[in-house]
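ingest -> validate -> predict -> emit
validate: passed (alphabet ok, no gaps, 491 aa)
predict: started
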Amino acid sequence: MADAARSTNRPGALDITRKLAEICGSPFARFAGPADEVAGRTARWVAVPGGPHAAAEVLRLAAAYDLTVVPRGAGTKIDWGAAPAQVDIMLDTGRLAGVWHEPHAAAVAEIGAGTPLRAVQATLARTNRRLPVDAPSPGATLGGVLAADESGPLRHRHGSPCAQLIGVRYLDADGELVSVGESGTEAFGRAAPGVGGGRPGGRAPAAGAGGGPGRGGGDAILGRGGMPGLDVARLLCGSQGGLGVLVSATMRVQAVPASRVWVSRPVWTPLEVHDLVRAVLASGVGPAAVELDLPVPVPLPRRRIPATHPSVINRPDHPAVTGRPAAGSLVVLLEGGPADVTERAERLTAVLGAPAMVSHHAPEWWGRYPFAPGDTALRIEVPINDLHAAVYALRDAAGTPVPVRGSAGSGAVHAALPGALPPERVASILTAVRSVLIARRGRCVVVAAPTAVRRAVDLWGELPALPRLRSAKAHLDPHHRLAPGRLPGGL
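emit:
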């Protein structure tokens, strides 16, 4: 029966289409089109179930016909990571949306996986609360953010989105709806208002393509963890849909800060960034984020710009004033009460020196990736004391400055290599950078890349936790029906 379904022109395929329409409703089940791709692999059907039970029926249908299923949220990161070996049914989570169990002042909320993150924040803002998650992908859904364990600047204080999890509801490969951890209603009596998760300056365990299954462990799944339910929930972070289909997540929420300011300082070298970050973390100002932007330097014009020119007034970082081009910026976000934030900003500007500036608006590049579609996007994770070594290693391997942006305060940054680079050149750069990082307990992962590069290079590098990940896959998806090949090791 599976063979009959492989082609959309065969009677078996029409039967599957009819059954998907019965489950989801005729407007929400169709043959896939050219745009329905996962990292270049085109799907055969698209199903948009109207709720958890309908999604479960889709998975049961897939199991009956031995078909693969790949979840999709808004599709903002659908080209990240490895291409799946096969995509029979693309399960769109767009109708698994909503924010539930969120009375005024509650410290948690249960959120549908298909809910856009912007909609979550807008709903919570009505009661002056927020989810301390600021993933850079515009339009991303909460499920997509968790599936990629995608973090933004707030990761510095609050950790990854995974760190905010109280519990999840997900569907296993057989279509069984599983609840692990705590639901929103259960958590209200246990979570203290204002809990934000994470720890100042800390970094939560990352997962999968976003750090998780690549680092996570399958031991808890097999019954050897202290909190197996929550461990399973966090193992799903970064799994790219390869271990389960997220239906909803119960997340910690917190009060919206009364005041926010950004303190910025121009920087010229990675070593200077290292010294400044250490000074910031030692200053006791409690930053919510410490972000770095190192763009490729733009050649200076031959004519020197007068310091009195309107374009450079009050711009101490401008080359006309400093005499040298600023390679980038280090920006620190402070959050809290107005008087407290003002006092901390004054202390921080004294630490950073005269070039430091205070603004009530984020810089234009804040919360954005340094790469564009078609680039080879890298993520580097390394202890903060070795971040400068990683950036220098990347520059040396590439033979030129490379755009780098991300959390200098937690040692997690992204970089961009031109998409036109040949695969063998990208492979040599990865080898050189990883050889520097391995002794520093760091790693370099290819987040996204052109098809030729994705097929030719090792996307993940060394993964000591691969055997445990293999055990987790075998336990949760023994028939490899969920996003096969999306996880490290071809799992």
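The CA atoms of residues 377 and 386 lie 20 Å apart.
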